[in-house]
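Task card 7
Instruction: Convert sequence to structure tokens.
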Amino acid sequence: MMSENVSVSPTGGITPLQQMLASGTGALFTSLFVTPLDVVKIRLQAQRTPFSKGKCFLYCNGLMDHLYVCQNGNSCTAWYKAPTRFTGTLDAFVKITRHEGIKSLWSGLPPTLVMAVPATVIYFTSYDQLRDYLRSRMGSQGAHIPLVAGAIARLGAVTVISPLELIRTKMQSRQLSYRELRVCIQSAVAQDGWLSLWRGLGPTVLRDVPFSALYWFNYELVKEWLCRQSQRDEATFMVSFTAGAVSGTVAAVLTLPFDVVKTQRQIELGDMETLRVAASKRSSTWLLLRRIQAESGTRGLFAGFLPRVIKVAPACAIMISTYEFGKTFFQKLNQERRLSGL
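Output:
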């Protein structure tokens, strides 16, 4: 009787703190597996087109996209300026490991985790709490509930993290101390208002919120279907992994045009901060989409299709399967504690 109570409790028999621990662990595993792919991509990119001083590039740790800024041009000695020459992706993996040490595959990762892990914890924990709340209030297991919960949870996480990413870019581009940073932020707020801290939020929301809604909608459907096919009551690690990869791929493909716009806007924002370029009057996201289509056709809106899928599918699969595994671990732990307390 006790085990039945655990399985049907609103949060799956675990506390919000345990959900946060499970999602934090999943975030760390995801970044450890996915970051080397992006480090190699950036090294190959820097080899083809050397980064100039103040040049911005995107760095993805599997959880979030972050702006990185090249500080000293050709004299820069940062990890992305190492002199090793590569002939391709596999050659880069081998040579980086052999000549620079295996730790170099995770170059630049620690500073990004300061924001990416809390953002992921907020996102996943909020999703589970919202989904369970909506199901209990509506008395329904409707397929629309994950879609709504996913969209709201992502909107909240992006809104919280967006000002922190802007602040990190300011610190990196101008090499400010914390005291100088405070003065810089106060001056920006005095000049442009508090909303200036959320500059660049629009394109991020337009990509991440639909992605999240589609991802959770498809994930719950695919997971349920796989459980039925394998005649299981609960999803296994491989079921969660497969459902995460499939739903991540679908969401990535359908939101790719917004990713193209978001990437352009993020680089523009970085240039404004690093090169002190004046903020030009920006066209709306929809006008930018129409311009890209006019210049490059529909293919332009889906530029980077393969690299995005290769990056997103494993990241989603590792994150959700590790998260679900962590929740199952805590659920069993709590159940054992309750049984031993009888």
